[in-house]
Amino acid sequence: MDEFDLIETYFTWENSSSRADSEDTIAVSVGDDAAVLNIPPNTQLVTSTDTLVSGVHFPENTSAEAIGHKALAVNLSDLAAMGAKPAWFTLALTLPEIDYDWLREFSRGLKKLAQQFQIALVGGDTTRGPLTISIQVMGIVDNNQALLRSGAIAGDKVYVTGTLGDAAAGLDSVIKNLNLSEDDKDYCEQRLNYPQPRLLESDTIRDYATSCIDISDGLLQDITHILKASNKGAELDLSSIPLSQALSKIDKNQSLGYALSGGDDYELLFTIPSEAESVFLEKMQQPGYQITCIGVINELYGSLVDTEGNNLMSKGYTHFSGKAFR
Ligand code: ADP
Ligand code: MG
What is the pLDDT of residue 4? Predict the structure, then answer.
């Protein structure tokens, strides 16, 4: 099988190319020297790249299907954080060898998520070397509607989607630093290997939030990006941080450590003006959506404290991060 057969077999599928828009946005897809894409009028292109390196961003024994899923999911999460709708992506794949079983599984994970969120694979590159997956996603947003990190205002409520810390606990259980029941281990490993980009939630969040980021490096680290970009501080109520059932069973300090500093959650962290809060909460009453208010923005630039005034950046939660594989 040469490179072209390989692409034909594993990376060509019915592209859900036309999105919600009725016009076809893909003029030229895989097969030419480059893709040619039509950007709908009055919209802006939002683009981002993330690379996963084996042994760095995921343990070497991770299944190919999970790698396919996760490589696209972490990129889609960036589009969600910007409030963009996914449109197209390219895939640069570096493989140590051609392993058809591996490729089939990888392709399955990738394709399933791509079809779920109607993002079309429009090109890529295939090379030999240490296993590395690099994806560039492209999305669209109505002019000047992209959600930035910089818009938080004092008084805004701080919200997160989903539950925090599961992926870091999952990683610790994979590398055997944490003992969980069989069910909880499966749950946390699923959260580590199959993160769900919060694109549906993002479609509503975009219309109400003043700032947004996806949590990839831990809550404390990532909220700091919002505070810096917005020139603000925040007070967090640690008792309101959403934990899964699995995490609420382990030592309280440890679960809080995962939730505050563990990586790979890919939940959204965003700020909502208090006057918009009740309408926003109503709009978010959708099956499967989970959002939790965990604090409030203030004018104290660079300050990040709990409700008792303790400085959260110096509380020593950082050693709980799943950084071994980042
Ligand atoms: P070139 O040498 O002109 O860069 P390539 O041989 O790298 O062309 O790729 C041929 C075509 O196949 C291009 O359209 C490219 O976008 C596509 N392609 C290559 N690898 C992949 C891949 N892993 N997934 C999707 N498309 C790919
Ligand atoms: Mg090429």
Answer: 84
**Residue 1, pLDDT score:** 77
CA 244, CA 163: separation in Å to the nearest integer? 6
Q: Which residues of the chain have pLDDT under 50?
A: 17-22, 319-326
CA of 90 to the centre of ligand 1 (A): 9
Cα separation, 262 vs 95, whole angstroms: 29
CA dihedral 219, 220, 222, 228 (to 10 degrees): 150
Q: How far is CA 4 from CA 19, 32, 123, 124, 131, in A?
A: 27, 12, 12, 12, 19
The answer for residues whose C-beta is within 8 angstroms of residue 17's C-beta and 6 or more apart is 24, 25, 26, 29, 120
Per-residue pLDDT, 16: 52
Length of the chain: 326
- Classify 123 in phi/psi space as left (phi over 0), alpha (psi -120 to 50) or beta: left
195: its two tokens:
């993160």
Contact 251, 181 (CB under 8 A): no
Q: What are the tens digits of pLDDT across the range 285-308? A: 999 999 999 999 999 998 999 999
Question: Phi, psi at residue 218, to the nearest 5°?
Answer: 105, 145
Q: Which of 154, 128, 326 is nearest to 226 (CA)?
A: 154
C-alpha angle 279-117-150 in degrees, rounded to nearest 5: 50
Position 86 scores a pLDDT of 98
pTM: 0.94
Q: Which amino acid is at 95?
A: L
Which of 30, 51, 111 is the pocket-test mutation for ligand 1 (most atoms within 8 Å of CB)? Answer: 30
Counting ligands in written order, which one lies closest to the CA of residue 114? Answer: 1
CA 207 to chain CA mean position, Å: 19
CA distance 80 to 172: 27
